[in-house]
Here is the input.
Amino acid sequence: MRTLSLTELFRFKLFPLVHHFGQSDISKGRSECLKRLFQTAPVLPISDEDRQVIFSDLHLGNGSNKDDFLSNADFFKTILEHYYLANGYQLILNGDIEELQRFQLKDIISRWHEVYRLFQRFKEQNALFKITGNDDLLFIFHGHQASIFIERFNYLTRFVLRYIANPCWIKNYSFSHDSRARFRTERQVYYFSRDQKILSLIGHTHRPLFESFSKADYLKSKVEQLCREYSRTAPEAQVKLAAKIKLYNNELQQHLIRNKQDALKSSLYDANLLVPCLFSSGCVIGKNGITAIEIAGGSISLVYWFDRHRSQKYFEFNVYKPKPLNNGDHFRLVLNEDNLKYIFTRIKLLA
Here is the structure.
């Protein structure tokens, strides 16, 4: 595995394969793309002593009002410098770092030179990576490779973004967050990961996933778990459990109101028991905060960073325990966490 110079593009493409498929072979073609990618990708060994943070979809632009990164730029620089760099994390940038579909690279580097200086500080510590590889069980890639359309017709995407979306002030967040294509991408990667018995970690869809669960799936399972626990708990402890159930259920209902597509699907991938093989780091350009995946001490975590002046949501639910960064207004919240060996065991036995 190598570190990248700052002028290299933080993305990759599979140029073979995509010209050989007809419409009836699309699903097979996606699997073949992912299989080829997995077989040829370089390797990053991971030990329990290492710390990695995975960010995706920064979409660095030229600093104009059409730049998706602009609203979270200062926030991202703060957590990158004062948390991840300060605590010895390796920085993994997983695709769509520069928004080259809309802007020129020279304009991006010129506007965000402070961000690139931070990247350089990680690089000087041999801690800056664009990972496209695996360690037999952990497979990190951006995710657009699961879409034959993007691979084959990327020039159309560039045309739409630069000449239609830009003039109409349409953000990248709108494209990824509201598109039904994200479900197809996640489903394709899920099936591939399940069949290969590996853990895949993607970005691209802008939606965080943990152990193949979307937020709606996770909240539903949490409510079900607490209800089962309630039925086996002594009466004096049921009051506290009932309050937790109410809080999680209220959050679930609010989430489904805001994300109506999630309400239409009981499970995104599998009618049977989900295999915990698909993770997504979400994106840096979220409306209210930044999501990332952390790997440290043999565990994997989905974390959410937010500014208390922009969002008070996680202070309202007392089941969450956000921690401030340097006693300031930026908070880190672990949304979900699990042991990697346990996850790999479940993948091995369930897939």
Remarks:
- The chain has a mean pLDDT of 77.
- DSSP finds 13 helices and eleven strands in the chain.
